[in-house]
Amino acid sequence: MARVLIAGCGYTGAALGLRLAGEGHIVWGLRRRAEGLPPGILPLGADLTDPRSLKSLPPGLDSVFYTAGADGSGEEAYRAAYLTGPALLLEALEAQGQRPGRLVFTSSTAVYAQSSGEWVDETSPAAPADFRGALLLEGERLLLGGPFPATVVRLAGIYGPGRTRLIGRVRRGEAVCPEGPPIYTNRIHRDDAAGALRHLMALERPEALYLGADHEPAERCEVLRWLAGKLGAPPPRQAPLSGAEPSRPRSNKRCSNARLLASGYRFRYPSYREGYGAILEEARSPS
After folding, report:
1. Hey, is 178 helix, strand or coil?
2. What is the pLDDT of residues 58-101, one digit of tens each?
3. Which of 75, 79, 264, 267 gives 20 to 30 Å between its CA and that of 284?
4. Given the DSSP bridges, would you call strands 237-239 and 176-178 parallel, antiparallel or unpaired?
């Protein structure tokens, strides 16, 4: 039985916490408003950007997960979530004499600027094209260079229960299929993101870096057409590709999960078909 802290216990962190608690581990979920955490996760109300609120972490922690996300899309929000928060958490753990055996940090495949459909893996150059990826990369380096054994998981786009915006756009006929060369998208179901984190916690000697993405980087139009077919909606209309906003360059890469698979993890939802299929099936089931 392990004593586990999940800092920034939100969408993915709560799923991880429920899984660990169900296995008999003692799990604390840290977030500003901790009263909404699912039963089984011990609430810990604290602000990762306020060192005063981190002075009384649970003692004797065996594993720490940092799964916080930015509160907004601006640079200050990203800095707070991915640099200030990790730095203050490390300081608090050290000051309290904690010795966790592993600290796992959830980053993002946004650190890769490749935009021509290239395959990327853990050895590919990460040269972010905007402040979002740059701050994520800086946070990764902070954790990997810190006082505790650390692992970084660069997650692709997370989808799952409750995240149905794309489904809604297809159902309403608002989805657009861009003209031109293929644009690849990478994703991971929330339950596989949580499952991969749990898996890495159990490894004796995990690597320092993993990509968390499912088996199949999928061309955007392919996903939209598949969803339209399942929903009985009109196929997405074709339209010229609009230019990306200057602060968010267009992403177009294919993420390999070979290292995660080699570590022994097996996906519950190996592609968007299984993942979105489960979401659609749940929506059809009587409550």
Report:
1. strand
2. 999 999 999 999 999 999 999 999 999 999 999 999 999 999 99
3. 267
4. parallel
DSSP H/E element including 258? helix 258-262
Which of 287, 119, 127 shows the shortest CA–CA distance to 217?
119
Please give the share of the chain, as a percent, with pLDDT higher than 70.
Answer: 96
Q: Is 262 exposed, middle or buried (0-12, 13-18, 19+ CB in 10 A)?
A: exposed
Q: Is the pLDDT of residue 167 over 70?
A: yes
Rounded Cα distance between 201 and 16, Å, is 11
Q: Is 122 helix (H, G, I), strand (E, B) or coil?
A: coil
Q: Are 131 and 105 in contact (CB under 8 A)?
A: no
Inter-CA distances, 150 with 160, 205, 211, 225, Å: 27, 10, 15, 40
Joined together, the tokens standing for residue 213 give: 């993405």
